[in-house]
């Protein structure tokens, strides 16, 4: 009896072979004879970043992976770090950047599970992503989901893992509940809306500033939007929830918006504070906490890397699994070249961005 291999199986095999060959050629072309690479360097706190030549390591240390970076996500924490306003204040000079996607260029002894040319996604300990190469601890390198481009992968960890941790572990969001998300058109806000809708099957109310951003939220599946430029949060929440309030608040703004959200939470609701984009850390009216019997908890996702590494890694693997299953997809608002890094920072600071802003170092 003759056995025939289906054409689609043969095609998959051919594609894998071509990808592997292409990846190997990429590594040879990018690494052969190179001693330096380009990176955005902070030479003085508060000054614009300088794109400079940085030396490549002569040898990759044990337990490390050298990644040829294709794209790096820009997070607000990166900007604050360069300005000297973040919780962590590194000594200059340093290369900022906390997440990247690319291909394995080389690795040291003891590293298993990777080969040169593999598509990977990584968080290099809060630094060093804004460059053509990045040296990373192997346990912080993950296979890139096949469902995403490397540019999309660059926006797939920090925002999504933060939102996953906030909604699952901290807020304990349940199917059918209503969640109010502020700064909903930003990277973490859109990630939270994506997870709430497509993982938890919750009802989402997104708060943002401007009709264009509200339109984007609706395109991304958010059921209700509130434009804080023209609408009162409390009035709209009352109307949407028939006066019951929301089960969960995820706030990233602080200031008066936090207070309005607290007053909009339901009896025994849960408020999660993730950041203070307004620059105004709110003073909590604790009488509202008493009257509503609600809880307020904070989430600093990066702190879990040392305080509770198991939960930290689980938040990453959870979102990567959801990406691989096609449940989630990051919104990349705009890409900039490495040389345009300061323009990218200004773009975010001027509140022009939606979703994740990404630096692109190489074509895929």
From TrEMBL:
Name this protein carries in UniProt: Enoyl reductase (ER) domain-containing protein
Domain Enoyl reductase (ER) stretches: 46-359
Highest taxon above the source species: Eukaryota
Source organism (scientific name): Batillaria attramentaria
PANTHER family in the cross-refs: QUINONE OXIDOREDUCTASE-LIKE PROTEIN 2, SHORT-CHAIN DEHYDROGENASE/REDUCTASE
């Amino acid at each position: 009896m003759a056995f025939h291999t289906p054409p689609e199986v043969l095609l998959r095999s051919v594609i894998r072979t071509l990808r592997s060959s292409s990846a190997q050629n990429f590594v040879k072309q990018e690494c052969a004879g190179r001693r330096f690479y380009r990176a955005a360097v902070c030479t003085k706190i508060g000054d614009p970043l300088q794109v400079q030549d940085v030396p490549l390591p002569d040898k990759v240390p044990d337990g490390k992976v050298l990644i040829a970076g294709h794209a790096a996500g820009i997070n607000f924490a990166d900007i604050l770090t360069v300005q000297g306003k973040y919780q962590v204040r590194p000594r200059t000079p340093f290369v900022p950047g906390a997440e990247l996607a690319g291909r394995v260029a080389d690795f040291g002894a003891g590293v298993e599970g990777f080969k040169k040319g593999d598509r990977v996604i990584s968080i290099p300990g809060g630094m060093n992503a804004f460059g053509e190469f990045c040296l990373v601890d192997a346990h912080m390198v993950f296979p890139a989901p096949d469902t995403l481009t490397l540019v999309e992968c660059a926006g797939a960890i920090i925002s999504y893992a933060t939102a996953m941790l906030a909604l699952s572990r901290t807020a304990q969001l349940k199917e059918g509940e209503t969640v109010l998300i502020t700064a909903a058109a930003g990277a973490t806000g859109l990630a939270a809306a994506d997870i709430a809708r497509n993982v938890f099957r919750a009802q989402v109310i997104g708060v943002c500033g401007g009709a264009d951003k509200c339109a984007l939220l609706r395109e991304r599946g958010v059921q209700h939007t509130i434009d804080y430029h023209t609408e009162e949060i409390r009035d709209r929440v009352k109307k949407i929830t028939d006066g019951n309030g929301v089960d969960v608040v995820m706030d990233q703004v602080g200031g008066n918006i936090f207070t309005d959200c607290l007053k909009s939470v339901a009896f025994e609701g849960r408020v999660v504070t993730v950041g203070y984009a307004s620059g105004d850390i709110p003073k909590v009216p604790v009488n509202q906490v008493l009257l509503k019997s609600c809880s307020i908890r904070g989430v600093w996702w990066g702190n879990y890397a040392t305080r509770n590494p198991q939960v930290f890694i689980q938040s990453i693997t959870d979102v990567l699994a959801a990406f691989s299953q096609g449940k989630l997809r990051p919104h990349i608002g705009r890409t900039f070249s490495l040389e345009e890094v300061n323009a990218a920072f200004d773009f975010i600071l001027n509140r022009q961005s939606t979703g994740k802003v990404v630096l692109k170092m190489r074509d895929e």
